[in-house]
Amino acid sequence: MLLHTIAEVREQIRIWKKQGLTVGLVPTMGALHEGHLSLIKKSVEKCDKTVVSVFVNPIQFCPGEDFEKYPRTLDADREMAESAGVDIVFAPSAAEMYGEGHIMSNDFLTYVIPPFFYVNKLCGKSRTGHFDGVCTVVNKLFNIVQPDFAFFGEKDRQQLIIIKKMVKDLSIPTEIIPCPIVREADGLAMSSRNKYLNEQERKDALVLKNILFNIKSCYNSGIKDTEALAETAFNFLKSCHSLEYLEFRDKNDLELKKTADKDTIVFIAVKIGNVRLIDNISLEN
Ligand code: PAF
Q1: What residue ranges define each of the domains in the chain, with the CATH number in brackets?
Q2: Which one of 71, 76, 101, 139 is least enclosed by Cβ atoms within 10 Å?
């Protein structure tokens, strides 16, 4: 069923909870693809009931980002979700979530602010306020849906780490289930933003996975110094690629690593034309 209001969702959740059923939440911004589908399948498998939220959250976009042109495909999303066994597609308006008028600034809206150490790096460095918007909306969705489990993709690894931290710090009674990155046949990590790439850019976009997979194979062959591993990236970068970051960080607390080990995640962001893509790989096994 497709619901647009908080009250309708709360009512349905109340009935399910009374019946002792477990609830899984898959928060999304829509434009669902195979990556989202893998999260949905996990939830449907693990939980009695699954809610998918579809909400292009205005407060996590920075000025000049793609909020206006972010793909909105609710009919297709609903069809995909429901045929995968989803019970509720929750698609609220911005007014439903944040009220009418210009109240979306932190002068007027209560925000959940994740710790500076977690947001002053990687994507948070160029996307000021992004993770405040993410934590605020996710916290709000948790309060509305009260999920036993919530499913997040490892593709947005910094987001996943920050949400786990929020859940721990705020004692939120929801278990976060991380889900592996889903890749296209040629290795490109699935993302709703891949839709922005033209034919040439789609080919150029393979640089992210090429760099990451090569670093992993260098690590497996015995190179552990992260500076030396980072240098291997220059064999792949061309003038069409603008590297924003390539960093080696701890999988739990995002601390920088000088020496790579099994707890290391390699994070990359590259701008191809006007499209900013991110990817990451764990060096474990
Ligand atoms: O990962 C996303 O799509 C969004 O950041 C999320 C978690 C749905 C919050 O708007």
Answers
A1: 2-179 (3.40.50.620), 192-282 (3.30.1300.10)
A2: 101
Name the burial class of residue 238, with classes exposed (0-12), middle (13-18) and buried (19+) by CB atoms within 10 angstroms of its CB.
exposed
27 lines ligand 1 (CB under 6 A): yes
The two structure tokens encoding residue 62: 């920075």
Return the closest-CA partner of residue 144 out of 283, 8, 40, 284.
Answer: 8
Burial environment of residue 75 by CB neighbours within 10 A (0 to 12, 13 to 18, 19 or more): exposed
Q: Is 36 annotated as catalytic? A: yes
CB 264: neighbour CB atoms within 10 A?
Answer: 23
Cα pseudo-dihedral 205, 210, 213, 217, rounded to 10:
-170
Mean pLDDT (whole number) for 56-63: 95
pLDDT mean over 264-275 = 97
Q: Which residues pair with 267 in a beta bridge?
A: 247, 280
Ligand 1, residue 134: give the atom nearest the CA.
Answer: 9
Ligand 1 atom nearest to 56, measured from its CA: 10
> Does the predicted model carry a pTM greater than 0.90?
yes
